[in-house]
Structures
1.
Amino acid sequence: MGGLMSTTTSFVSKGSWGSVYRVKHLKTGVKCALKIIPKAKYREQLRVLVVHEKKLQFALSGDNIVCLFSAYQDTVNLYLVMEYAKYGHLRRFASRPDGLSENTVRLIAAQLVLGLEYIHACDVLYRDLKESNVLVFGDGYVKIADFGVSRIYRGRANTFSGTPDYMAPEMADTYHGYGLEIDYWALGIVLYRLLYFRHPFRGADKIKARELLHNINTVNLSFPDVGENDELTPTHHFIAGLLERDPLHRIGRHGGDIKQHDYFKGMSFMAIHRKLVRFQVNLPPVPYEATTELDVLPDIDPDKPMNYFDSF
């Protein structure tokens, strides 16, 4: 993406690492998201995570992965220029009962399966799938973002890393380690929350990570819409398969077999890949505040993104 970014910006959100602004590419008029991360606040921890994320996102170019256009720095901040998601992150929908239909959740699940399939094929363990890391674009399609805790996968991993609510039970076993199956456990948590607006093992109460881990290993999975004598639907079976405690029997362990599940019966993954399926988004675009206060963007050419981070 050649040319300079505009310095007239709109504030979108503030996250744990920095602030996100909507900016416009001066040549093409394309709207982009600019993430600004202050160096002074995080120093070494930030440097390792952001440089790692930059390298992974530049390397990944799948249709279900948020594109990182450019990464650069000045003496004060780090800057990441990426695709702008009109509807923000998926968490906005998870908090609204009228946000997504069951069929739309199924279509989102298919896209996330395609995204994870691509990430794993690139020998990357994602490790942080959650609603706030899935962005919803103007056409209703979703993409996976934020690779700060991802890693190149060369066998078993044993680092306790990610967001506790979405961690698979085997991640606590740092001796034996874990594999790619943890990403499918997280997918199960995401789908459950999108459908039922709560965590399957947490309930309504706020509990600590250790208590949550205990619940994950001891509490039986249940569904609010299933009575004692009701039969499980393919949706229930699919989520239960993703939330299988034993990773050796978890859906997704054998790669492409997940797409053959009855949950996706009648669905064309090729049509979704080609964006031939229409989505209805029952949510207004993410709000932003117009501002002209941000005038610190360097005069750089985003066609040469790799050079701007090399010295950091």
2.
Amino acid sequence: MPKFPLAVFCLAVFCFLATRSMIVEDSRTLSHKNAPTKEAKTSAPSIPAEIPPSRPDPLPANPFTQLADSLFHGELKKGSAAYETLSSLFLEWGAADPHAAMAYLEQAPKGKQRFAKAVLRGWAQSGDFLAARVWIQSNIAPQLATPFYAALIDGLGDIDRPEESIELALSTEAKARPALLQRAIENWASQDLAAASRWIEANESSLSPREQNRALSGYAKAWAKKSPATASSWAQSLPPGRTRDNALLAAFDEWVQRDATKAGYWIFSQKPDESIKKVLSQNAHLVAHVNPQVAFEFIENDPANEEDPYRMRGHLAMALDNVMHKAPAAAAPYIKRVEAQTLAAASEGLTHAPYQVSNQSYVEMVNRWAASDEDAAFAYLDTASNLSEADREAIKQGAIDRLQTTDPDKAAYYLYKRWQDADQVNALQFAASTTKDHLDISVSNIKSHYQSIAQAWAKSDPETVGYYLERQEILDPEETAELLVAIQPFDG
């Protein structure tokens, strides 16, 4: 290989490295010359007026706060959508940052502090229930603290820590202890009946009588949520006394809220000992539809009701309402009793007779009766003395409207009776030369209803309808002929 090209290559490499070194040195020198002096460092750099100074981005707002602010402007009645959403919000906020949630509520308008219980429940769910208890002791008066401790107990129940919830209940003041213990036992038994039962048996001797009663009541109530009949029978098998009374009442109360009919059949099938009587005296209005006679007797003979007529009237009104909703055909004697007592009260100037109800409620009761037993209700309506003619006719027409689809034959029969009544009433009205404007009787309306019934009926049985139309007296001959043509099937 010739030496000349190698010498040229080495010279080129040397020139490249020398040039690179000079460029780096020049850049360092330039950088050093442009560096600010100490005086320049202490003075603020000049900023053109048209460019605003830069600022750090604001921190994002607390999403809990934003949502709470928006919801507090809504309807906050218990059970409303806003109320339920806020409860869930503060429950979650309590689990995430209870101190911030409590600080927010302290600044909230009056009445909003009620959501503190939701925060406490979430606080307990986070596992730090001891700090939550300290908050209650520091911020809530002892006589008002029971529902706040109950929220903690519910939170501990949510995360399956029953022993700690019982320990918390037993650490409170004596007056609150029984109710809180019942709450803790109920939560535990809802998850593990056997474990809760073992705890009660092991600790019963160390509990006061009230605490024993409430513990068994909580156990019975939780059991009734799973098997109400079994729980009620178990409670009834306990030794006679207040413990059995309370346990049976707790189980039956849960049962009757879930299925009043089955609960009613069970309670009326039991021997009426003292426990059963006490349960019935408090729940007769809820199961009156099963055995109205016995239920109303219990309500009327309940000592608490005898001492408080307004309480009796309230229970009787609820019993009547329950009967009318679930067994309206069985309500006839009680509707008549309402009528008699209402008339007697009006004549004597009384305002709180036990069976006295408002006219609107009375009309509604008879209307429900007519919906279940038209014949009996219509017969009663002809003699009901505390109903206006307008109310009577409105009830009858309502029953006829319902019968158009269920029993058109009977609907036609009652329409014919209404026609007869209208004819008699009109004759009497003309004879007395008085107005009939207050009566809800219209011949044209009766004809219209009759025609609609006939047309609906003719779709399934035109021959029978034709037979009735040829013998009815509601429509005149021309109207009858037109209707007969209209209902004839098309032969093609």
